[in-house]
Amino acid sequence: MPRVHPYLVLTTVALLWAGNAIAGKMAAGHISPMLLTLVRWFFATLLVAPFALPHVRADWPVIRPRLVYLSILGAVGFASFNAIFYLAANYTTAINITIEQSAMPLVVFLANFVLFRMRVAWLQLVGFALTLVGVAVTTANGDLSTLLSLDLNRGDALMMLAVLFYGGYTVALRFKPQIHWLSTIFVLSSASLAVSFVYAVIEFALGLTQLPDFQGVAAALYTVIFPSLIAQSLYIRGVEMIGPNRANLFINLVPVFGALLAVMIVGEELHLFHVVALVCVLGGITLAERGARSRRA
After folding, report:
1. pLDDT(42) > 50
2. What is the SS3 assignment for 154?
3. pTM, whole model, 2 decimals?
4. Residues near 114 by Cβ (< 8 Å), separated by ≥ 6?
5. By CB distance 3.0 to 4.6 Å, which of 65, 165, 203, 241 could disulfide with 34?
């Protein structure tokens, strides 16, 4: 992949992932979530295979002893995260989904601190805390008393579970073997395809499968090309360039793009508490990134 600025790489990732939330919302009621996940990773794996297989063959001596580990990464970060993500879209708004994704940096920070004692600057702590406030306000729909009573919307609760999955995946990427990025995408996508098939079979057995109509097909096509292939590849590259803690902060741009797209495309209403949450999120990413710079200096 040509050398580009990591900020541009990760901002593009945020935009494409914001579009994924919109696609998931538009898919709700038009294609069942597990079938959507299966379609996404089937075609993503199929499309990347011709470009990736030569690199996979060259990297196979490195991949083979780490195949189980890479497969778990694909199962958790690709298949399970997206299955829960699309299921959540059936019960909550696209704006909520994108803002709640901003909790991922906090998960990454806590995991890195607990497992690896990774040091952080005090500005990073303030930034993480401010981000958490924004996520809490969104999850509670502006009424923090719902958090104290644990009276959460089902979709918001599912989205927070998805955040835990992807945060764990991001931390685990630090142990990824040094192989070509296309090899990584293909192996992880293949594992995701296998797990997605199992999820789709369970959905079918429960009688919950819904075949796609035109809108469902359009949403599925977007998920195949943009968040699956392009964004995942760029995200892996971004983590390699500036590390998981700093790279994950750019996910905080997802709610900004997501809110704009949700209002323009889906016609959702932007409430005052959404604006407050967005201010917290943007303030959090700014402070945390300044803290990371000062610590390196």
Report:
1. yes
2. helix
3. 0.79
4. none
5. 203
